[in-house]
Write a structure and sequence with these properties.
Oligomer: single chain
Largest sheet: 7 strands, parallel
Number of strands: 7
Structural class: alpha/beta
CATH architecture: 3-Layer(aba) Sandwich
Length: 179
């Protein structure tokens, strides 16, 4: 038998415990995401995988926002975040801090997600781009690689919030963070 668990039975940490717990050595960079729903969903997914931080860049809306909160369900209060007008400057700074920036984008020589192997001890900055234009080319140019989600249908892409979930599941599980 499969009885649904109540939220009180899930054993989740409090916001205070979340802030103190060890984080997955991954940050998200959202490059000009226009939908506040997508931003909120990224916060919620970042919380689920205990990421270090989210960087909101360019036209991204920032908390506090009712639309972000609607999708994030409060994760915008647990996950550290920062706004910067320039995605490029955030990526350049994170490189100096030891992060390996990877754009999630369809490019020549991209690595398919199922073939991507994160290296132990490395910190990653995963960059997700605008719903229509993707990751800016100038940002792709300074990345140390690109990851592509294999697709088999007629569409050219997934919704950015779906892409965040798919990529984080794969990367975090390969990092050995999952049970």
């Amino acid at each position: 038998m499969y009885k649904k668990l109540l939220n009180s039975e899930l054993g989740r940490v409090t916001q205070e415990e979340y802030r103190e717990q060890a984080k997955t050595p991954v940050v998200l960079i959202l490059d000009n995401i226009r939908s506040q729903h997508n931003i909120g969903a990224a916060f919620r997914t970042a919380d689920a995988f205990a990421l270090e931080k989210i960087y909101l860049c360019g036209i991204c809306a920032t908390p506090p926002s009712a639309e972000i909160r609607k999708a994030a369900l409060g994760a915008e209060e647990s996950v550290d975040w920062e706004y910067n007008e320039s995605t490029l400057s955030v990526v350049e700074r994170l490189k100096t801090e030891g992060f390996t920036p990877l754009a999630v984008e369809q490019t020549v020589n991209s690595v398919m997600l199922n073939k991507f192997i994160p290296h132990s001890g490395k910190k990653y900055a995963l960059i997700f781009g605008n719903e229509v234009k993707g990751v800016s080319q100038d940002v792709v140019d300074i990345c140390e690689g690109t990851i592509e989600i294999p697709q088999f249908g007629t569409k050219h892409s997934l919704n950015v919030s779906v892409s965040v979930g798919v990529v984080l599941w794969e990367v975090v599980s390969k990092m050995g963070r999952l049970f």
